[in-house]
Amino acid sequence: MRPFDPAVLRAVPAARRPLIGLAVVGVAQGVATIATAFALAQLVVAAARREPVGDPAAYLLVVLAVRAVLSFVGETVAASAGTTVSGAVRAQLLGRWLAVPAEQRPSPARAVTLAAQGSTSIEPYVARFLPALVTAAVVPALAVVTLAVVDWPSALVVVLTLPLLPVFAALIGATTRDATDRRWGALADLSGHFLDVVRGLPTLVAYGRGERQVGVIGEVSQRHRRATMATLRLAFLSSAALELLATICVAIVAVTVGLRLSHGSLDLGTGLLAILLAPEAYWPIRRVGAEFHNAADGAAALSAALPQLATPQETAAPQETAHCPTPQLPSDAEAGEPGDWPPSSPGVCARGLGYTYPGSEHPVLHGVELTAATGLTVVTGPSGSGKSTLLELLAGLRTPTVGSVRGGTTHLVTQRPFLTVGSLRDNLLLGVRPLPDATVWRALRQVGLDGAVAAQPEGLQSPLGDDGRGLSAGQRARLVLARACLAEVDVVLLDEPTAHLDDESAAWAHRAIRELATRRCVVAVTHRPELLALADHHVDLAASEVTA
Ligand SMILES: Nc1ncnc2c1ncn2[C@@H]1O[C@H](COP(=O)(O)OP(=O)(O)OP(=O)(O)O)[C@@H](O)[C@H]1O
């Protein structure tokens, strides 16, 4: 975890302008700070010597006005930079995770933590810590150079004592890093556990195990609380330590200036300037130390996000590849090289397909051959034989360990299809271009859901809760089947589309799938013999062979 990693500028292009803006304002504020010390010293000297104070006072007012304007601009630029960068990181993370195969994505718990709280914590890091870092880089240097010109003994004291602050800050930072890492680990555990519990809550309640989770979540939360309190204790202690050290250093400068003033070896103006400039050399570094604790989460989140935002890793080359003919059955002679295959060509083809989950030693799929064109291809096999994995490979969500997949655009209906808060219409057209109501009703009719939707007072505009709340499991299954019918893709992949349906609803759905297969390539995983009976092609993963 570095205070600032320039890789951010490469990985998040949207961060460049705001961060450059922060640096420019920071330098201008540094110059204005030094000018204020000069103006104040002049005014005090003029007043002490009973000289006219009009000019120095006007000069001071102008400098203070400039500082006020710069401070306003600085706060505005910092606030906008914070939201811009944190929003850009979140958007880029989500875009990247959607673009890469599942095995290159972080675990759901880590992804949720990084995209939600992690990205949010980047905001204070950019808005508060980075401006402090710029000030710490500019103001002390300007103060020391100015001191060296006007009063070199004071400059010498500052140069000798100033490095103590970063050294202390670095020592404290190293301890904070461990505490922050522990906190992040506890937070990821908490998020992951909470996500699992919320997902499995209906099952846990059904089996009377819901209450037990209260204790488990309580225990994980306590771990997170303890880690947070440890970080806070460190933050308070380190701020106090840096404050004390800086105060002692300024006092040393002040005492030496005072002694020389009383000896008459230093004039009032120079002594005053030295006393005004000395704190300016220390406070920016103190502020960095204080802000670092507020921003430690953001810095940790950014360093965790940066590798994810790096240029896409080369996906592992398949160990062996096989020629994949066009699935426009059945002529191999018509097939070009795989690279010649137009992406929008209907159908999908897998050759010598094998897949091993990361971290596992045993392949789930091995040597699967499948060629599917317009029509219905049914995949069967015992539970755990890799049917869902095969659909994810055909959809391009996973990269085959062995073999190759070629195919047109796909629409995958998983066993846990995504339904979101919104109207029925929104959910039906999710990921589909806007379509007229008549087309939507036709799709609903095909799956036998038109009656239930028409019975709702608001029809297609009827609201739906998160995860399809408001519909039965069977209605949800038919809704996502209707959505698949509306999707303008080459290949529709269905994972047990009628698993939760009664026989009558299943018959509706089977008819809809059969109708869809007259114009699309449909690959359906099922345990239902009725759907198998409608298939044009059959892939049995138990036997790992194709029968027509
Ligand atoms: N994310 C994962 N990481 C590791 N192993 C996994 C993962 N998902 C599935 N598996 C394993 O891969 C195997 C095949 O799983 P898959 O879900 O593809 O089977 P399936 O044939 O669809 O089963 P079912 O008919 O019960 O739905 C199983 O042994 C499962 O434990």
UniProtKB/TrEMBL annotation:
Residues 348-548 form the ABC transporter domain. It is a multi-pass membrane protein. Residues 20-297 form the ABC transmembrane type-1 domain. One of its GO terms (molecular function) is ATP hydrolysis activity. Residues 312-347 are annotated as: Disordered. It comes from the Bacteria. The chain crosses the membrane at residues 20-45, 57-74, 129-149, 155-174, 234-259. NCBIfam families: CydD (TIGR02857). This is ATP-binding cassette, subfamily C, CydD.
